Amino acid sequence: MQNISKTCILVLFLIFGSIFCLGISCERVDAMDQLPQEWNDMENQGIKVIVKVGNKEFTASLLETETTAKLVSMLPLEMEMTELNSNEKYYRLPQNLPINTFSPGTIRNGDILLWGSNTLVIFYKTFNSSYSYTRIGKIDNPEGLENALGKGNVRVLMELEK
């Protein structure tokens, strides 16, 4: 009888512990998923650039920060971007940029982020991530971005919108 009550207590502990942990986990993801208003409103403000991949052009909006000011000073920038994880392309910049890292939780198709202080990343799929980045900007309308970037390495030109 004593073994049965210990087993029942253990099962109840596991059930309530799991419910509690799931509640915390969901709250954490929701909080990480909420981006500052400036990030959501970038299409209406910020620095406009053109991202050219082959014959396809995408307009991107960059935040007005110290990091992007330094990046913009390097434009136009022709990059041989390397494929990584079937969801992103990256390019190591010739110089470090100032950083202000955050953990986005969810990376979105079209996000342009800085990993470390010199790796520019364009994401073409939405997924969850625990990595930290510095916000740069986002492709305003990423429809077709994955197809344009294709598989493998790709040449990308980023320049100020005229």
UniProtKB/TrEMBL annotation:
| InterPro entries in the cross-refs | Cyclophilin-like (IPR041183), Cyclophilin-like_dom_sf (IPR029000)
Looking at the Swiss-Prot or TrEMBL record, what is one Pfam family this protein matches?
A: Cyclophil_like2
Entries under Gene3D superfamilies matching the protein: 2.40.100.20
Q: Which residues form a coiled coil?
A: none
* Start and end residues of each Cyclophilin-like domain: 52-158
What is the protein's name according to its record?
Answer: Cyclophilin-like domain-containing protein
